[in-house]
Amino acid sequence: MVEKGMNPAALKKINRDKVYKYIYQQKEVSKQQIVQDLHLGLSTVSQNLNELEQEGRIRRDRYFQSTGGRKAQIIQIVEDDRISIGLGILKDMFHIVAVNLYGEAIATETIELSYKSDDVYYDTLAKEVEQFIQNQHYDTHKIEGISIATQGIISLDGTSMTYGNIMGNIKMKLSDFSSRLPYPCHLEHDSKSAADLELWNHPQLDSAIVILLNPNLGGAIITHHEVHVGHHMRSGLIEHMCIDPAGPECYCGHHGCLETYCSANALKAAANMPIKEFFNTLHTEESPNLQQIWKGYLDHLAFAISNLNLVIDCPVIISGYLAPYFQKEDMKYLIDQINEHSPFQMEEDQILVGTHGQYTPAIGAALYYVKQSLEL
Hints:
Order of helices and strands: HHHEEEEEHEEEHEHEEEHHHHEHEH
Shape: globular
Largest sheet: 5 strands, mixed
Structural class: alpha/beta
Mean pLDDT: 93
């Protein structure tokens, strides 16, 4: 029966969307389940499934285990029916990822390219992106868009930068990418992208603090299941919290910012060796000097977390480049240090660790177009 004020075509689209999203959410489902759970007629469901299959949006090529009768077909969406591309731009390189409809990175690559605010840089980047898509043999009509995560603060309308001291990218504009790439483009702060990914991976969290342990430190605040950006896109910039006014000079011009103690670059400088070498040596050999450096790093991180948790009482997510290096004993030490200097105890399950490492901002950025594809 057609609802009042709704024409048959509109109702058909609503039912079609309901069927597709139900399959997406369930991941594997039978036709009978769809009929029962959505309270739709068998003919309506069958028609929608046939259309979705003809369009390449779902597949029915396997069967559930028999329960005594005829085996039911397993219905799934085609995860790579739509693909979103994410870029994570850093000073000396950029990460590129392809993400499917479940937000999973199905291809990744790191390309060495020093940032310069000129046509040569943007032309080169665009060619590398096109080559990446070509190498993966993706049909161009499947590419939903390219979302770019960069260091620095983005304008409220998302078209330009308002702060770019790390990379010197204050002149970067969305049009630098969209004029060179034949796909929709989107620009956002890398910390927001990282928070979007962590929120996608932990949908049960209403609020959280995300600490992005990248070459340069970043942070984000999640409230009411959304990334809080603030009136001037500056919420969550924990990297510029001053923890020692007499400390090292930060790229912002001030002294003692958390950036100078807890960024991956700060750890690399203190150890005087590449990050991978540092952790390989730290965890495989007796090295009191490196262990002391690492404990000092964790002490500063614990100090920041204990103070942040007094402002926002919520879980903390350690994300980004350094996150995969954290081991169980590191987390125990971190929790102990947090609780030693805080009037309120923090439980172990209140600190989560991200798993996507250096590709975190790029994957998080790509989710912008994943959500658009699914209309989430």
